[in-house]
Amino acid sequence: MSPKRKHRPSDRRFPYGGMLLAFIVLLRAVPCGAGLTLEKTASSARIFGDHFRMIVDGQYGGTVSEIQLYDGSLWHELFPGPDRGFPALSLQDGGKEYRLALDTSASLHGLRETGGDIQCSVEAAPRAEDGTVFPWRVRLEYLICPEGAVFVNVLLTLPVGAEASGEIALHFDVNETLRHFVRFRDENVAKQGNGFPSARVAFGANTAKSFTNEVEVFVEHKRPLSGNALFQKEGEGRFCWRLGTNSTTLKGPFEYRNAFALGCGTAVSGPPRSNAVGQRVFHWVNWLDLEHWYPTEAQIDKMVEANATMLILHMEWMRQRGSNGNPHADYREARNHEEMVKALAYAHQKGLRMGLYMRGIEPYALDSGFFETYCRRDWDGLYVDWHGPTAVSWHESQYDPEIILGDTHYSPNGTHVPAKDYFMFTRRLRDLVGEKGFLIGHQGSFNSGILANLCFDAYLPGETGSDRLMFSDIVEAGYKGMLGGSVCMPWTLDLPAYRNAEGTAKMAAWGVYPHLVMGMKAEHGEGYTFSLEADGPEYAFIMPYWRLLSYMDVEKAEAFNLPGQNRVVLKASDPNVQGVVYRTADAWLVIVANLGTFPVTATLTLDPEALGMSGEYQLTRINAETGAEHAEGTILDCMSTSMLPPWGLEGFRITP
To answer: Which candidate in 202, 283, 349, 634 could, as Cys together with 515 as Cys, close a disulfide (CB 3.0–4.6 Å)?
Structure first.
């Protein structure tokens, strides 16, 4: 037996703020695919991504003993300690606890790079604090992805002749520092099926910002080793999946399998992680004229005149569009092939990106070739409704598969939440639309967390009831919009409180890019219809914001000062004036809004170093209401707003 192990701060290999140490490690590391770098030691693997870094550690049972997440300026450790990492498996027997992380000599095998991912397997045995070895043997099979996903297949084996308890649990605890940040939330409001709920955590260290990082953990199978399988939230930032509740002795040979997933996100500022920054979207539903469903050339012209850059065709583009998966949609036949080809060709001619509706619960759609038939790779994209593994689990708990369409299910009753398979499906979607295409995901009432969005360009909240007041403040917007891991594109149809100057000002100040829904009746007692004409008065509220965004090339823009970015690059002398800075190769665009209740003027100060600026620049003021430009002379890093009314917007273009 080994002596009881004690953990000291010096055990940490990635000390907080340890940027110099990280740099030295990277000098000795080996690149192994897009976005990941691997360093091997005798007993561990250190893996570095763009926004996360981690250790798979044989001295801690082959678990991930450390994960640090980057918030734009600082690294933050996720776990309470190296013996409380992921997966934190523990077993009970006779009142004694055995934990996987207490095995100090777990062996790592097959550490390799495969297609940009890193894979390895681990053999270990749970131990008690006094070193006693438990009879169960554990095999972990890792898949670590540069997008920020970690998948672990788990096999527990009880050898022939061995006996042991079947009381087992997986714990996920967030360290105390993060739990005491000014921004911390761990609510999962998603509608659940028969599977386990995920653990969702978001945090941020800056009082002037929102949530800078998102984390989500799944247990895929609600499959008990013994007794029942239960999920418990044990406190703030502390979660437990009880995978076996019966202490009755089990006899070998015996096997138990499950799969765990962990997704890590950080704020997204533009390409290559997102092609959605700055996009202006009309979302064509058209339940007003199904006989003449597709937009006409004149209607598309009006969209372009309104500064739109993207047009989504909702579900009615299909002849059989289904109904929330019951029945399923048939993607093989468009409502009218000739009219669809004509509409998309004209929209492309006018410079619009086109997106087609599909459902994440209907992956068989890709076998029909509908995207290749109508859309351009590396330009067009998909709007994915019923998005995410939680939606899949709920759907399968309610309905049977439609075999005739090629539809299949992961489980007969929804007890399997297919986190890894859904992530691989999102990768397939990314390959379909191309690196420069776009994916917009809508989880609706299944908005469980960030994992489903790691391969996507944007997340669309707003439809479900829990999102209705998402713009009440920057904190709520950050959580409901998942700004700590994605670009936010809200569904404004169901946000009547913000289809006005207030909503426009907040979206402009916080870098949010709404969808304007066209062709259906308002559903919240407004008493009017969202027309099929882009110059309709119901869309006028957003036009000042779109007018300002049109002064940059959205295909090349990078956003700074977003609520999910820790670094402040734009300071205003009045805190009610907030905004975003966009940078392209040869220009900067500053958009600010007055979020206060009184008219104000403010001095704006930029961070030249963060924005890549040096010396003097020409400043042009842009009137959001008219688009009128006024040359203001040269500046170094400061400018002053005009007198902005409550919810007023203003833009500044900065050029060499």
So the answer is: 283
